[in-house]
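Recall that a protein's primary structure is simply its ordered list of amino acids. Everything else, from secondary elements to tertiary packing, is in principle encoded there. The following example makes that idea concrete.
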Amino acid sequence: MLSILHDLEAYSGAQHSGVSCQGNLIASTCPADLQQDLVRSQQVVSQLFNGINECGHSYAELHLELDRHLLLAYRLSEDCTLLMLTRKGVNMALMATSVRSVKKRILGALSKAAELPSSDLQPVFPVGETGFIQAGSAQHQEDAAALSELMNKLCDKMVDTLGSTGAISFYRILNEWKRQYGMNKYKLPALLKLLAVELEAGASRDTFLKEAVVLTRELVHRS
């Protein structure tokens, strides 16, 4: 399931994504410090979809505007909802196309997961090796909160340099980097090199790299 979500993020530019089944968040690419927020969000989304259905409507898409982000929810089936956390100003047509491209894969993965013992698929964090949230699993992401904060700062700097398209470029490149290195803080220089390719040579790129290097060094050398 995680590979499907990573493919979705790479194509759409979404920051994080997750899958909710029967009111429980069962898979997510969010870092540990954001997991509980996504759990609460998916519960609200589930209630909203249910309320809409009770009113006789059949809407399958919700957009919730947060402080700096958008939470997009797509009901893929009666029991399954796809959640995407992204920056404001994204291409909504691209988001919808991205969801359609992975819908069958997600529902197929859920169908296979239904064959697992119920005790193996619980709303417990963090995400296990299978891509579903496993009961009793343990994962310690070093400097998870600091890395998340750094990514937000780097994204903001890309937006300052490229405009609104900077966020889409940033998360596309971030997902490529994560697929290759995970969230390894010692591989942050590789991320900066990938980001620099998106910027035209000149003062703007030099300023971005100078500020980004300072931020990443602070994280790499923290105790």
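Helices lie at 2-12, 32-54, 92-113, 144-162, 165-181, 188-197, 203-220. Confidence is low (pLDDT under 50) at residues 116-142.
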